[in-house]
Amino acid sequence: MSSHMDSDMGNLDDGCVSPPYFIDGNPLPERWSLRGQEPESGDPRVAVWQLENRQFPGCITVPETTAAAKFYAREAQMAPDVVAGALRLSYFTDGSVESPLQGEARDKFAGVRGGYGVVSKIPFLNMGADEWHEEAFFTDNAFSIDHMEMAGIAQCLRNALDFVDEFRAELSARNIEAVKVDVFTDSTSSLEAIKNGIQPRLGKTDLYTAHVLPIVKTVVCLSHALHARNSNVEFHWVPRCSVLKHERADALAGRWKSDKNANVNIDYDESSVPAVDRKSISAKLRICIDDAVEACRQRSAAQDPPQAQPKAPATAVAAAAAAGQATANIKPAPNALPAPASAPVGAPSASATAPAAAGVAAGDSCSQNGAARVDYRIEELGRLQERFRSGNLNAATLARMTALRETIIKQRRAQAAKKRKLSPPDNGGSPPKKRHCRQ
Question: Which residues, 6+ apart, have CB-to-CB distance to 234 below 8 Å?
């Protein structure tokens, strides 16, 4: 299967080789390769796509009601191949991505597993009105759900362009001069990005622009290529899984979940296939997106260099010195308490640290081995003081030192009170109650 692009696309070969690498949603295992293998040079069409600077030439339809959206989607499922003299190509797509919150903390510039599904009806193949073509695409380098949703939309246009070029003779024989391409998606954010055109979306991060903008350009460029072939493109919003074909697309998009634990080294991006022959849009754009994300990473590192440890303010030094003095010579008398130091900027307030300190003190006072706990607190305070001397003092360390100092003093007071046969003071600070003893 081969074709040639129009002048707007630079007369580049814009077809895809036969057979496809994904048939009815089943990827060919022999096309897979181990992760880490360097892919071949990029597809030259990708460079043409990224030069796109026009606006989307088609139409975006977002019905006012959910019922209306379902009606249009159901009508597309049951519509004949030719409507009003125009061939109708209907596509349903959906995306899926692994949530970073489900795993360990990761680098935001590193991709995760994801995929997208495409369900389409292919005319002229005598498949019947109820038989549709299903494709599932996978990747281990997804950066957001919009990444996969947008890749699915671009994949629909890529497939439509391949169909128009392959069956051009068939269309002429049937006197069909126009083609209507309908793409149904549940991603309103993707439709908004396409509507805004090539410009980056306001309020979005640089990383979002880095991995979504290349696909937006691809969608716009493919739309213009279809428009040059007398094919009109229209995007429709449809509620998630509200019709059968979109439910199938949703299932195909999440197929990567079924074997995510089978072999973590499998790379679904067709890296063993020459870049020019890859069918998956996400695989074709991988090098381009990786370069954009890496540039974004470098800009982020340049804007946020590692901050040197700031010098401790005078109040922090005074608090640390007071804590050291209290550790060396803790007296049960109330006047032995040094004046509390004011916390530096960014340190927790007294109301925030007091409950934690009070809870520690209450738990230690009720312990049977209070002396051992006091020794442990003194050792911990000593370690924090060493960190202070080495210049690693921060707001959290200072707050912990203050809480430990107060806890140690209260524990020593409680021990002294027991020796004097007095009940230990309660957390509210009320004076101890004396026992009535015989004279």
Answer: 58, 59, 60, 61, 180, 181, 182, 183
Domain ranges of the chain: 7-303, 314-419
Assess contact for 181 and 89: CB atoms under 8 A.
Answer: yes
Buried b (16+ CB within 10 A) or exposed e, 318-348: ebbebbbebbeebeeeeeeeeeebebbeebb
Give the architecture (CATH level 2) of 7-303.
2-Layer Sandwich (3.30)
Residue-wise pLDDT for 177-222, tens only, equals: 899 999 999 999 899 999 886 565 555 567 888 888 899 999 999 9
Residue type (1 letter), 303: Q
Question: Could you tell me what percent of the chain has a pLDDT over 70?
Answer: 55
| CA nearest neighbour of 273 among 120, 111, 137, 93 | 137
Distance separating alpha carbons of residues 297 and 292, to the nearest angstrom: 9
Q: How far apart are CA 259 and CA 37, in angstroms?
A: 21
Distance of CA 237 to the CA centre of its chain: 23
Cα distance between the two ends of the chain: 111
What pTM was estimated for this model as a whole? 0.59
User: Which pLDDT band holds residue 7 (cuts at 50, 70, 90)?
Assistant: very low
β 231-237/178-185 pair status: parallel
Paired with 250 in beta bridges are none
